[in-house]
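User:
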Amino acid sequence: MSQALLAGLSRTTEPRTALRRFLALDAVVTGGNGLAYVAASGPLGRLLGVDAALLLGLGVFLTAFAAGVGALAARPRPSGAAVKLVVDANAVWAVLSVVALAAWLEPTTAGAVWIPVQAATVAGFAALQWSALRATAGTTAR
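Assistant: Predicted structure:
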């Protein structure tokens, strides 16, 4: 991903600011998703065709993960190792979502649409964060 594209997506030419914005966006979206799963695991479970207890557990995990990503985004200079951990976690989440859909979940039509859309969104966060991290590393080497 080029620095020009990153600059356009994040509305800044400063890679560190872009990285922090992508982390913050991830935290907001993931936190919202997690809170929804916690607050409405029963109705959402029925809508998506996913076990409510599974959604509740995922919601708790996502809410905690989002808090950590938000804390990382709030740092003036997010740790490269911590950002890599977030990128890896997002990539694993995206892959496991697709594997779960193919291997053992039996979702409703809404779930069959939601799960891949959610996986693609998380994979997009991973790609943006990784690209911004690489651009940040390039600017510190200069």
